[in-house]
Design goal:
Largest sheet: 8 strands, mixed
Shape: globular
CATH class: Alpha Beta
CATH architecture: 3-Layer(aba) Sandwich
CATH superfamily: Gcn5-related N-acetyltransferase (GNAT)
Strand order of the largest sheet: 1-2-3-4-5-6-8-7
Helix content: 25-40%
Radius of gyration: 19 Å
Length: 231
């Protein structure tokens, strides 16, 4: 008697993805640069370090008592390979925010975008969106990842809306997923897959075009609408 054939997933190229590197990725509105603590500690302190509210949903770090402690924390981040930190720079070269590729599983070709802390000058700007485009393109097209994750505290409504706006698919809530700063945290999971990236790439690029903004800088068509997001 023959054994039943059980269903299995499709075959996948087992070649591991590459680890993030010390690159500078330049866009139309600014650049994403490997973290250099010595060169960016002072401007990042002014933009994000001294604003306690920005660290509410960062599970393991912040807020910081003073610039010295913040600078020491940045120096430690620079030595780590996972999370792998980058800074977001405006057109004048000033550091405006912090972001990381993390929970790197190169053998499975899975990586997460996280530890996103945008200063006021970066929030709700084309550069803030372009940063997400540049890093997603880097992860999929240069490094070779097949799954790109976004996770956040389930109570962090702005982060959940941002994930949908950028094209991530909501996957569910991991209940009591962690203890963050002494509090129970449920975590919302989102993902974008390599097969979905080409469509989202086109949407990012269309949204970022000059003709999508009026003379006051207001968008004509939203990225959320392009991605079919209920954000």
């Amino acid at each position: 008697m023959s054994k039943p054939v059980l269903p299995v997933g499709p075959a996948v190229d087992p070649t591991p993805a590459a680890h993030p590197g010390p690159v500078t990725i330049t866009g139309r509105f600014g650049a994403v640069v490997r973290l250099n603590a010595a060169g960016t500690a002072a401007p990042l302190w002014r933009e994000i370090g001294k604003r306690d509210e920005l660290w509410t949903y960062i599970s393991g770090h912040g807020p910081f008592a003073d610039e010295r402690i913040f600078s020491a924390w940045l120096e430690e981040r620079e030595t780590q390979s996972d999370p792998y930190y980058y800074t977001v720079h405006g057109p004048d070269g000033r550091a405006l925010g912090l972001i990381a590729l993390m929970h790197i599983r190169a053998a499975m070709r899975v990586v997460e975008i996280g530890s996103i802390v945008y200063g006021a000058a970066l929030q709700r700007t084309p550069l803030g969106t372009e940063t997400q485009y540049l890093l997603a393109r880097y992860a999929f097209e240069t490094l070779g990842y097949r799954r790109y994750e976004w996770k956040c505290d389930s109570l962090n409504t702005p982060s959940r809306c941002a994930a949908l706006r950028y094209g991530f698919a909501f996957e569910g809530i991991f209940r009591q997923h962690m203890i963050a700063k002494g509090r129970s945290r449920d975590t919302a999971y989102f993902s974008m897959l390599d097969g979905e990236w080409p469509d989202h790439k086109r949407n990012f690029e269309a949204w970022l075009q000059d003709d999508n903004f009026d003379r006051y800088g207001r968008q004509k068509r939203s990225l959320a609408a392009m991605n079919g997001a209920a954000a």
